[in-house]
Design brief:
alpha+beta; seven-stranded mixed beta sheet; 27 strands; globular
C-alpha cells in the first residue's frame, strides 16, 4: 500500500451496505498502468444523495458517474451517441419507440445480471418516483412502457415523440442500477446504490467523505474511454473540503491528488508544470436568475426586463475571474446544440433599464432603492453556489435602484425552496447536452420546473419541440423558445459556467463526459 493510501486513512468510514467486493490488485489494462493504488479527490461540498437517478447536484453526479453506467454514451466533441451497455440501438420514424440490445455478460456489483427485465424495472421505478427523480422523469416524458423481447432486447415506448430520450439515455440520470436498488425507497437510495460501473461505494459519511473501490471483473466500458477492463486504481477517496483555501492548499502540499472547483482566481497559480488544469464549459442553461412570476414584484414585466438590461455579463466574467469564457447571450449556453444568440436583446443598457422602471412607476428613493406605492423594489435570490456571481449581479442592479438580496442556503434547502415555491428568484443553471433543458426548466408539466411563468405560446413551443423528429424543424422551435424567454425576461443569464478542476503532476486520465461531469475510469497516478 502506498504512502498516499496511508495518509488518507483518516477519511475512511463505515461500510454503507451490501455492495460487491472489490479487487485489491494493481490496475493494469491495455498497456496503461498506475503506479499508485489510491487517489484522493477533494470535493467542495457534500453530495447529499448518492443516487444519480435522483440528484441534480454536480458534486453528487461527479461521484456517481464512477459507479453507474448508461445504455449509451455521447461523444463530448461531436455529440454522437455511441453504444455502452447497449451494443445496438435504433429508433422508429416518429421517435415513439427506441429498441436496444444489451451487451452480453454485464453484471451489477451484487453479481446480478443486466437484463431487459432489469431495464424495465429501472424505467418503471424512475417514472413512478415522480418528483423524487424530477429530472429523470423529464427525460422519460410521455413514457408508456418497456416491451421485453428477450433477456437482451427491449423497446422503450412513449405515448408521444420524445426527441431527447436517446441523449438522455447517455446521462447518469438514466444510468442503470440493480433490481435490488429499484425497490428501495428514494431515501434509502440516497444512501446506497448498486450500479454496473467500474467502481462501487465503500462508505459515505455525510459532510465528511465518500470512498469508492475498484470493481473486480469490470469489462464493458464505452469505446470512448482510453482502456478496457478494470479501473486503474483500487480506491478513490473523496474528502469533503468546503473551504477553497484548504482544497488549494492541500493540492499544493501534495495532500490531495485532485481537487474539485479550483477557484478562477487561483487558476494562474496552478498553471505550471507541477499541476494539471481540467476545464470544460457546461452545456445547457447558463447560471441565471430564474424567476417565480407568481410573486408580486417578480410578476412585473418591467422589473424583469430592467434586470435583464441592467446586468453586465462581461463585467461578471471579469469580476469572477472567468474572463477566458464568453458571456451568455441566450437562454442556452453557446456550447449547447440548438443555441440561438439573443445578444442584441440582452445587451447591457442601464439607461434603458432605468427608463423602463421610470415608466412603470418605480421611482428612486433617497436610499437608492426604487419604490412604488410604498413598496420597495426589493427581491431575493436563493442559491447554494456561485455566490460571487450573485454578489456581482446584486451590485450591478443596485446601480439602477433594484435591491437584490442574497439568500445562500444548502443544496437541500435550495431544492426544498423549489418544492414549496418559496422564492423570488433562483440563482442556478442546468447542465444538459440537449436544448430540451428549456422545457425541463419552464414547462408547467415538468416535475423539475424551476422557472414559474405563465405563457401559453412558450408552453406550446416547448411541448412541440420535444415531439419533433425533424432536426431542422426542432431547431427552429428551440430558437423560438429562446427568443420568447429572453423577450419576456423569463431568465436573467449571468455567466456561462464551466467545470474547473486541478490535479498534481503525474495524474493522468481525468476526462469529462458530454455534460461536463468527471470520468475517473482511466485515471492513474505515477509516483
Amino acid at each position: 500500500m502506498s504512502s498516499k493510501t496511508t495518509r488518507a486513512m483518516r477519511w475512511a468510514a463505515a461500510p454503507i451496505g451490501a455492495l460487491a467486493a472489490v479487487s485489491l490488485l494493481a490496475g493494469c489494462a491495455a498497456g496503461i498502468e498506475s503506479a499508485q493504488d489510491n487517489v484522493i479527490f477533494a470535493l467542495k461540498e457534500d453530495p447529499t444523495c448518492l443516487d444519480p437517478q435522483q440528484t441534480t447536484v454536480t458534486t453528487a453526479l461527479n461521484v456517481g458517474r464512477q459507479v453507474v453506467d448508461s445504455l449509451v454514451d455521447q461523444n463530448a466533441e461531436t455529440d454522437e451517441i455511441v453504444p455502452w451497455l447497449a451494443e445496438t440501438f435504433e429508433t422508429n420514424a416518429d421517435l415513439t419507440a427506441y429498441t436496444f440490445t444489451l451487451k452480453k455478460g454485464v453484471t451489477f456489483s451484487d453479481d446480478t445480471a443486466l437484463t431487459s427485465d432489469v431495464v424495465k424495472a429501472n424505467f418503471d421505478a424512475l417514472y413512478a418516483m415522480g418528483a423524487s427523480a424530477s429530472l429523470a422523469s423529464q427525460y422519460l416524458a410521455g413514457y408508456d412502457s418497456v416491451d421485453v423481447t428477450d433477456d437482451r432486447t427491449f423497446t422503450v415506448n412513449f405515448t408521444q415523440p420524445n426527441a431527447q430520450f436517446l441523449q438522455g439515455a447517455s446521462t447518469m440520470t438514466l444510468g442503470l442500477v440493480s433490481e435490488a436498488t429499484t425497490v428501495l425507497t428514494p431515501e434509502e437510495r440516497c444512501q446506497t446504490v448498486i450500479g454496473a460501473g467500474p467502481f462501487t461505494y465503500k462508505s459515505y459519511v455525510p459532510n465528511d467523505s465518500v470512498v469508492i473501490e475498484k470493481r473486480a471483473g469490470y469489462d464493458w466500458a464505452s469505446s470512448l474511454r482510453e482502456h478496457s477492463g478494470e479501473a486503474l486504481v483500487n480506491t478513490i477517496e473523496f474528502p469533503i473540503i468546503v473551504e477553497n483555501g484548504v482544497r488549494t492548499g492541500g493540492l499544493d502540499s501534495g495532500e490531495f491528488d485532485i481537487i474539485q472547483d479550483l477557484p478562477y482566481a487561483d487558476e494562474a497559480r496552478f498553471t505550471t508544470g507541477d499541476f494539471n488544469i481540467y476545464s470544460k464549459a457546461n452545456p445547457g442553461i447558463p447560471n441565471s436568475l430564474i424567476p417565480n412570476t407568481s410573486r408580486p414584484i417578480v410578476s412585473d414585466d418591467a422589473v424583469r426586463q430592467a434586470m435583464l438590461l441592467g446586468t453586465d455579463r462581461g463585467e461578471i466574467n471579469e469580476l469572477t475571474g472567468a474572463s477566458s469564457g464568453v458571456p451568455p447571450t441566450s437562454a442556452l449556453t453557446s456550447t449547447t446544440p440548438g443555441f440561438a444568440s439573443q445578444e442584441k436583446a440582452m445587451e447591457y443598457n442601464p439607461k434603458a433599464a432605468e427608463a423602463l422602471l421610470d415608466k412603470a412607476g418605480w421611482t428612486m428613493g433617497a436610499d437608492g432603492i426604487r419604490e412604488k406605492n410604498g413598496t420597495k423594489l426589493s427581491v431575493t435570490v436563493t442559491g447554494f453556489y456561485a455566490q460571487d456571481v450573485l454578489e456581482a449581479t446584486s451590485m450591478q442592479l443596485a446601480k439602477i435602484g433594484i435591491d437584490l438580496k442574497l439568500n445562500m442556503v444548502t443544496a437541500g434547502d435550495f431544492f426544498g425552496a423549489i418544492a414549496t415555491g418559496d422564492y423570488d428568484f433562483l440563482g442556478a443553471g442546468l447542465a444538459r447536452t440537449d436544448p430540451d433543458a428549456l422545457r425541463v426548466l419552464f414547462s408547467k408539466d415538468s416535475k423539475a420546473r424551476w422557472g414559474i411563468v405563465d405563457n401559453a405560446e412558450l408552453e406550446s413551443v416547448l411541448t412541440e419541440q420535444v415531439k419533433t423528429a425533424d432536426p431542422e424543424a426542432r431547431a427552429k422551435l428551440v430558437a423560438q423558445a429562446q427568443k420568447l424567454i429572453i423577450d419576456n425576461a423569463y431568465l436573467i443569464p449571468t455567466l456561462e459556467t464551466g467545470q474547473l478542476h486541478a490535479s498534481r503532476a503525474g495524474v493522468e486520465g481525468v476526462e469529462f463526459d458530454s455534460a461536463s461531469r468527471v470520468l475517473l475510469y482511466d485515471v492513474r497516478v505515477a509516483e
